[in-house]
Amino acid sequence: MASRVPPNLTPLTERLDSADEPSQRDEKLFEHDVNQCSEQNESHAGLVKYHRQNSEEPEFKSLQLPLTTEDMVGSDLFKNYKTSGGAKNFEPTQPRIKVLFENLTDVTSYLVRQASGEREQLEVCLPNPPFARFTDISCSLKTHVILNSVDGFDIKQNAMHSNYVDLLDQQKHIATQYPINKEEAAHFWLMAMQNNTDIIIDLTQKGDKDCVPYYPLPKNVKAKATRKEREKAMDSQVAFSFGVKPKNAHDEIDQPSNKDHKVSPELIVKLATEPTESKVRSTSVYKVTFNREVKLIRRFHCKIWRDHGAVSTEEFDELIKELAKYKYQNFIIHCRAGVGRTMTLCAGLELHRKFENGEINRENYQEIVFKTVMKLRYQRGPSSVQTQNQFELIMRTVYLWVVEAEKNSLTNSKKKK
C-alpha cells in the first residue's frame, strides 16, 4: 500500500514499521500502550521517581519536545504549498489539514514505539486502572502528576490520570480527565490544593456519560429570592476524606464514614459565590479548605463542546481570548477523557501566546501548529488533540488571527499615509 505521507517525506516512513492500513497501525499502537501500562503499573511510582525525584513536578525544559520538525517529518512538509498564479497559498485547506494530521499520527506512533538510545521516546503509562476512564488512553510518564502523601495516610499517589503541561507562561497547568467516582474526586481537589490551582476549566457538556458532579451544587432558588434565601442556597458543600474507600465506585459524592477506620483530615469544598449562568457558559467560585489552608478556586464551565467534536472558530477564538486574560493563574483543564477537547484548548492557549509575541505569521503558522500539538502529545500522551476536526479547529483559528493581524496592519499603514 502507498504511504499516507507524501513521497518526499521518506525519512519518517522508513523509520515506521509497516502496517497494511492506518487503522491497524493505530490499533497496534494502543495495544502496545495497554500491554506496556499493565506491565508497568505495579512499579509505576518507582518509574516516575526515576524521572522525577522527590515527587516534584518536572522542570519546564524537560517538557519540551526533544525532536525538531526535520527529525519528525523531514524538511519539505511545510514548504510544499500549492501555488496559484505564482503566489503561494497558505490557506488551511482540507487536503492540507488531512496530510498534516496523518503525519502527526505517524510521528506519535514512532515516538511511542521506538526505544532508541539516540532518541528520547514518548514513554507512557496507565495510572491506577480503576481510575482510568479508558484503557486505551495513556499518560505521558515523564510529566505524570504525582500526589504527595497526607498526614501519614498512604493515598494513591499515582491515582490521577493527569499531566503537567507547559503553556509558555511559566505557570503550573494540569490536563486531566473528569473524576470517575467520589474517591477520585477527593484526589482531584487534593491535586488542585497541592498545585496551587486558581481556575478549573470544565469542557464537558450535558450529554457526556458518567460525569457525576465533583463539586457542590447550588440549591434551587426562586428568581425573586431575597438575599438571605440566596445565601442559604449557597450553603451547600462537599466534604472528602482519604484512607476510606467508598462502598460503591459510582456512589454519589458525599462524606465517607466508617467507624472501623481512622479518617484523615477533611477536605471541604463549599460554594462561595452565586454561580453566573448563560446558555453556553457558567462560572462558580468555591472555597476549598484542607489542613488549615483555605483557597478560593474558580470553575469555568464551557457547556457547548461535544465529545470528539469541535466548536466553531469564532467560539474557540472567544474562549481562548477570555482565558488569556487570567495571567499568572494556574489552570486545571479537563473534559471527559482529558485529551481531545482539553488538549485542543491547551494548544489554542499556547499558540495565542506565541501569536501575541509576534512568533506566528502566514508562512510559518502551519509548522508551529504542528510542532505545538506534537509537543503537547509528548507532555500529555499520544491521544492529545484526538480528532482531525479538532486539529482543523486549531489550524483555522490561528489562520484567522494571522489574517486579522494583516488586515489591521494594512489599515494602520493607510491611516499613517
Automatic annotation (TrEMBL):
PROSITE patterns, alphabetized: TYR_PHOSPHATASE_2, TYR_PHOSPHATASE_PTP
Pfam families: Y_phosphatase
Tyrosine specific protein phosphatases domain boundaries: 314-392
Residues annotated as transmembrane: none
Single GO MF annotation: protein tyrosine phosphatase activity
Extent of the signal sequence: none
CDD domains: PTPc (cd00047)
InterPro entries membership: Prot-tyrosine_phosphatase-like (IPR029021), Protein-Tyr_Phosphatase (IPR050348), PTP_cat (IPR000242), Tyr_Pase_cat (IPR003595), Tyr_Pase_dom (IPR000387)
Chain segments carrying region Disordered: 1-27
Coiled coil: none
Compositionally biased tracts (Basic and acidic residues): 14-27
Domain Tyrosine-protein phosphatase, first and last residues per copy: 133-401
SMART domains, A to Z: PTPc, PTPc_motif
Name recorded for this polypeptide: Protein-tyrosine-phosphatase
